[in-house]
């Protein structure tokens, strides 16, 4: 096998590795951001529903 | 939530080792003189990814044992994260291995011991996620998953030693009791890639543990609002 022929296989292998790892990295980063936002919103909601906290809690 | 979510230093460290490792593999390590020729360059990431996948499954085995002893959900989370990452790395091993096989042996696949047992590992750990998805009650799910992770791990050492005890296969043995059989320049590239992949695994474990903790927190908060 010539270097040119081998290079195609090598490039394909490294491209797959890079693509999958970068995709997973950004996917998990996005998941972290989404979950952080959910936690924030839910914590605000829990606080709002606390008895005595704000008008709604007092009734 | 705070310290587990990001592990930037680990990601940067992993990136540096991986880039230097691959640069040395292409610019410093010689082209393999055997039939593999230039396609042997795939080895410098393929083998470290394979070793890292097996390490991830090893950690999941330890986490499963610790969960069964303590019933602490943090071990269930660690097991889940390690198996997910182990499976991700295993898919990369299979994909790059098939490409390398086509280049070096002229075939995408061969039912030889290492490849077959590694495929079995992948199927077993896919089944782990199927099992988790069908059990709803949290503690039961974690217990079943831990027991299954222990059973599934039996195939991991079989895969590792397949090429050593069953030498009939085509897959080469890289590390033996007598050393690596690689010239120094190849070994340096391989070793740096190995460190890089290990650091990447640790960084991803830390990040994914953060994700799982956040997910549990969301679930708790939803329950507290619902109740």
Protein model, in words:
The complex is a heterodimer of chains A (59) and B (227). Chain A has one domain (3-58). Chain A is rod-shaped and about 80 Å long. Chain A has two helices and no strands. With 59 residues, chain A is mostly helical. Chain A starts with a helix and ends with a helix. Helix content of chain A is 88%, strand content 0%. By secondary structure, chain B is mostly helical. Chain B has one domain. Chain B has helices at residues 2-5, 8-27, 43-70, 73-105, 113-134, 138-153, 155-165, 184-226. In chain B, helix 2 runs antiparallel to helix 8 (184-226), helix 3 (43-70) packs across helix 6 and helix 5 (113-134) packs antiparallel against helix 7 (155-165). Chain B is globular. Chain B starts with a helix and ends with a helix. The chains are: A mainly alpha (59), B mainly alpha (227).
Q: What is the N-to-C succession of helices and strands of chain A? A: HH
- Per DSSP, what share of the residues of chain A sits in E-state strands of 2 or more residues? under 5%
Our count of helices of chain A gives: 2
Main beta-sheet strand count, sense and barrel state of chain A: none
Proportion of helical residues of chain B: over 70%
- Cα Rg of chain A: 25 Å
**Low-confidence stretches of chain A at least 5 residues in length (pLDDT < 50)?**
none
How confident is the prediction overall: mean pLDDT of chain A?
85
Molecular shape of chain A? rod-shaped
**What gross morphology of chain B would you assign?**
globular
Number of strands of chain B: 0
Total domains of chain A: 1
* Straight-line N-to-C gap of chain A: 81 Å
How can the largest sheet of chain B be summarized? none
Q: How many E-type strands of chain A? A: 0
Helix run count of chain B: 8
What structural category arises from helix and sheet content of chain A? Answer: mainly alpha
By oligomeric state, this entry counts as: heterodimer
What is the percent of helical residues of chain A? over 70%
The total domain count of chain B is 1
What share of residues are in beta strands of chain B?
Answer: under 5%
